[in-house]
Write a structure and sequence with these properties.
By secondary structure, this protein is α+β, with helices and mostly antiparallel strands. It is built from 22 helices and 42 strands. Helix 21 packs across helix 22.
Amino acid sequence: MNVPLSWLKDFVDIDLSLDEIAHVLTMAGLEVDEVQLRGLDGPANNKHGFKFTGLTWPEDKFVVAEIREVNAHPDADRLVLCQLEDGTGEHTILTGAPNLYPYKGQGRLDPPLKVPYVREGAILYDGHKPGFELTKLKKTKIRGFETRSMVCSMKELGLSEEHEGIMLLDSDAPTGMPLKDYIGDAVFVIDILPNMARNACISGVAREVAAQLNIPLKQPRVEVQPQGAPIDGMAEIVIEDAELNPRFVLGYVEGITVQPSPQWVQLRLEAAGMRPINSVVDATNYVMLETGQPLHSFDYQTLKARSLEGIPTIITRHAHEGEMLLTLDKIERKLDPSMMLVTDQSGPLSIGGIMGGFESEIMPSTDSVLLESAIWNFINIRKTSSTLKLNSEAGYRNSRGVHPEIAIKACRECLEKICAWSGGRIAPGLIDNYAKVTIDTVNEITTDDIKRSLGLELSLEKAAEYLRRLEFECTLQDNGKTLRVKTPQHRLDIGTGLIGKADLMEEIARLHGYDNIPMTRMADELPPAYANRMIAFENAVCAKMVKSGFYEIINYRMTSPEREARLLGKAAEQYVTLANPISPDRAVMRSDLMPGVMEIVEKNIRLADALRLFEIGPIFLPQAGEQLPNEQVHLAAAITGKRNPSFWSGSNRDNMDFFDLKGVLEQLFSELHTPEVAFKAGGPEFLHPGKSASIAIGEVELGYLGELHPALMQHYDLLQAPVLLMDLNLDALLPLAVKDFKVKQISQFPAVLEDIAIVIDETVPNEEIEAVIRQAGGKLLADCTLFDIFRNDQIGAGKKSMAYALTYQSNEKTLNEKDANAIRNKIIKRLEQVLNAKLRS
């Protein structure tokens, strides 16, 4: 939110440097991102380190001047010569400003035109280049005329992007006055956090400043007395859903002339980030920015012409299915029944609380206005804005909640400003339908509450003083032992019970000053600490993956079916869908980690010779008949690129393959001390059918690993190197990871090494063969490793040769040849009996 200093000073008399004001705002919880200078000088000593941007107008370079005469240039139709007085004398200047052409050749102007005047050496923005580029004004010669000064457009002064003509000041601007003293300003760009949404207005920011500095808060008003016939009978209000539209207020002003609003109003709106439109629309925007209450103005005669009985009936209701409305931005919007509309008997007028309709907008011919000041359910406003992808200043404020009492105040102030800036008469009274009354919360606090929450020895009298600065009503009760606090009628964020007490503690802490709260030890008993085994397990797995040379990545948990379809090809109904997504491409919860991992691989594959990435996080699977999804924590990993780095001496530069990733997995399972893991051919459809495997321990399916299918490589911008993927269900793996495991002493006796090769059916997997060998070898078989698979015609069709390296070792003695032969013969015999294997000769 942009807060102009001049506007802020309407509410508080503040005499601090710009950086001190920014510091006060930030300490109040209104974090200042930057201060934009619009002519004023920056601080001499920016001790708080705030960012200052924009343009300073030195007094001797930027002044108010008056153009007394506009004459044609003898050699150029698009240039004029102006006789100008700047307080030091009369000068002739050259300009091509098109808005001066109408005055050409009229002789002495009465009254003269007041303009911003800039002298040689001034630093200003170049009005003829895109963006805001600084330039220095130098003496130059144009069409035979030497010029050392110029009159400026708003862009050249840094006030807006308007550069089509020079800026014309009000006729009462004092000639010769430094420009910064006349229209100079500074704008505080404030980050309004969710807990400070009530301060998305000038009065809210001013209230915080007044409270922090303990100075009075002023309430500026343009008092215009109502006159003429009262508003009763000029319109009616019907609210069909009070939950979504608790209050609706109408005011009426007639006899107006739609015209440009005063220049100071336009400058403030520009500084606040809104484009001036006309004196009526500007009044609604001005009061919205000032009070936080969005308003909307209707052309009364248009409503009257649409009315069936000649008296407009304003109805707030749910939109009908498929109903359409052309909004003020000239976009036709398709509505649905979840959205609230402001309508009359003939149809929709506006999207409630967000944007008006084009048909009833204020026109140059408008002479009477029906003014809306309404309160809406903030959750419904958020959903509507998100569904329609329609953001507006009104929607921003209504989506964060506005107190119903502000509606009356804002409506009256806006009527007065319309009348002051457009002429006309305000009809006495308002039409007010307060369908659902908001009851302000009341809380009670004690010194013990303050001590327990803030660690402060603070009296209730001092706490009451702080809260009264923020307009809370405070009353001491129980002989001064309890403070009763009633929430003011502009705040919806103070709860009741324990939440309400916590909210009040925050207010007291802000006013006391966070830096004045002493550091104290917690006096309460600490709750018992319970270890979260899954979190500890995730951390352990993460550490082991990093040790294996992987980099951890973190992806969004929200995604879209289209993103996941690149890899998984799933339909939308298989997802957990968000009712109120933050954006269209984050509309569902992810059902798999791998699509996100593949996106990161795609983005980074050209940045390194090799990638080793992993992510640990939840996936969300819908459960039939259940409101909440099934959340499973998974580990996903991907590797691609060269196995070894490129050294000057040369090395193996082959690409990583299936067995590189399998080795990482085997190392992980080993360090987690899991039971024996089985790798079986198969896996998801997006993996290469001949280079993929499922992972299981016993009957528990854990996941998969394999190479990305060549056909799916075309879905991503990848290199030629294969991409190897792996996914593990950590929820399923956790119970299998042994927390307490036994260790055994290393044998002090030498091992006997022996190789055997067997011929066996092609269909028998290595897993079964190793199981038989280990069972037959018993305790004396220390290790069994497959080191060769061989096939040819001599072995026979449907057969293969499997060669194993066997290690025999005892903890009690040195094994001799006889012992080794006995073990070997037992193993061969067992293989023949169980698997019909034959020793290869």
